[in-house]
C-alpha cells in the first residue's frame, strides 16, 4: 500500500492507494506547531479507522511546499511506519524537461500536477490549480514545462479583504445567483467568485495567445467553487496531484 501526501499551506491531502489506484482521500489542516508523534497519531487513526492495516504501508511519497514540516512528517513515517518517505524535489525522475530559468524554483506541487496531466494528455496543456494560491502551469506537446503564473487564491483574497476593511463582515465563499449583488454579502461573493472566474478565463486566453491552442486541466481544493460557472472547456481532475504522486513513485521506487 502506497501513501501519497500533498502538503500545502492550508491542507495536507493524503491518498491511500493500492495497485496504482486511489482507495481513499483524507484532508488534514496544515499545522507547523505539532510534533511528528501527533501527526503520526492522526495518520494512524485515519488508516485504522478506514479499515486498513498500517503494517501494509510499504511506500510513502510526499509533495511539500511547507519546508518546516518536511522533517516532522519524515520522522512520523520513519518512527511509526518504519518507511522512509520519498520527497518530490531535486534529482527525482519525472520524465519532464523543465525549461524555466531556475528549475530549482519549481514548486513540487506544480511538477506533480504537470506530470499527471501530461501522462494523461501528451499535448499542449494549461494546468490550473486553485488552492491557497491560484497557479497556472504551462506544458507544451514535447513534455516541456515552460513556466506559468501564480496569483492570490480565492480564499486568500477574501481573507485579505476582511482583514483590510473594518466594516465588512465575513461571508461564505459560494457562487451568488447574480453577478449584480443586491446586498453586501452577495456583492462580496460576486466580486470574489466571478472575479476569480474572469481571471482564470482571461489568463487562459492570454496563455493560449503565446502558446497556441491547449487543453485546460482544472484541479485544486477551491476549483469546486468556480468549476460550474467557468466559460471554457476543461478537464476536471480533483485528485490530480495524488495521481501524479503515484506516477512519480513508480518512476523512482
Please outline what is shown here.
This protein is of the alpha/beta class. The chain has helices at residues 36-49, 67-80, 108-120, 154-164, 184-211, 223-226, 240-252, and strands at 2-7, 11-18, 21-29, 59-64, 86-87, 97-98, 125-130, 133-139, 144-152, 215-219, 235-236.
Report on the architecture of this protein:
There is one protein chain. By secondary structure, this protein is α/β, with parallel strands linked by helices. It has 2 domains: 2-87, Nucleotidyltransferase, domain 5 (2-Layer Sandwich), CATH 3.30.420.40; 97-245, ATPase, nucleotide binding domain (Nucleotidyltransferase, domain 5, 2-Layer Sandwich). Helix content is 38%, strand content 25%. The protein has 7 helices and 11 strands. The chain has helices at 36-49, 67-80, 108-120, 154-164, 184-211, 223-226, 240-252; strands at residues 2-7, 11-18, 21-29, 59-64, 86-87, 97-98, 125-130, 133-139, 144-152, 215-219, 235-236. The chain has a 6-stranded mixed beta sheet, sandwiched between helices. The protein has a 5-stranded mixed beta sheet with strand order 3-2-1-4-5, with helices on both faces. Helix 1 (36-49) crosses helix 2 and helix 3 crosses helix 7. The mean pLDDT is 95.
Amino acid at each position: 500500500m502506497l501513501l501519497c501526501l500533498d502538503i500545502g499551506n492550508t491542507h495536507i491531502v493524503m491518498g491511500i492507494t493500492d495497485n496504482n489506484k486511489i482507495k481513499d482521500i483524507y484532508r488534514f489542516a496544515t499545522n507547523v506547531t505539532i510534533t511528528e508523534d501527533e501527526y503520526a497519531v492522526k495518520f494512524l487513526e485515519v488508516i485504522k479507522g478506514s479499515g486498513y492495516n498500517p503494517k501494509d504501508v510499504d511506500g510513502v511519497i510526499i509533495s511539500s511546499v511547507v519546508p518546516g514540516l518536511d522533517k516532522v512528517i519524515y520522522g512520523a513515517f520513519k518512527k511509526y511506519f518504519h518507511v522512509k518517505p520519498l520527497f518530490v524535489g531535486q534529482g527525482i525522475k519525472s520524465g519532464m524537461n523543465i525549461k524555466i530559468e531556475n528549475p530549482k524554483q519549481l514548486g513540487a506541487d506544480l511538477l506533480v500536477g504537470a506530470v499527471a496531466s501530461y501522462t494523461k494528455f501528451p499535448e499542449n496543456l494549461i494546468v490550473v490549480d486553485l488552492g491557497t494560491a491560484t497557479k497556472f502551469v504551462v506544458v507544451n506537446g514535447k513534455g516541456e514545462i515552460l513556466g506559468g503564473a501564480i496569483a492570490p487564491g480565492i480564499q486568500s483574497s477574501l481573507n485579505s479583504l476582511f482583514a483590510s476593511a473594518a466594516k465588512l463582515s465575513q461571508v461564505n465563499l459560494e457562487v451568488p445567483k447574480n453577478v449584480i449583488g443586491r446586498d453586501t454579502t452577495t456583492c462580496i461573493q460576486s466580486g470574489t467568485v466571478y472575479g476569480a472566474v474572469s481571471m482564470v478565463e482571461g489568463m487562459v486566453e492570454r496563455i493560449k495567445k503565446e502558446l497556441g491552442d491547449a487543453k485546460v486541466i482544472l484541479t485544486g481544493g477551491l476549483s469546486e467553487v468556480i468549476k460550474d460557472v467557468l466559460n471554457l472547456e476543461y478537464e476536471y481532475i480533483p485528485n490530480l496531484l495524488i495521481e501524479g504522486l503515484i506516477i512519480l513513485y513508480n518512476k523512482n521506487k
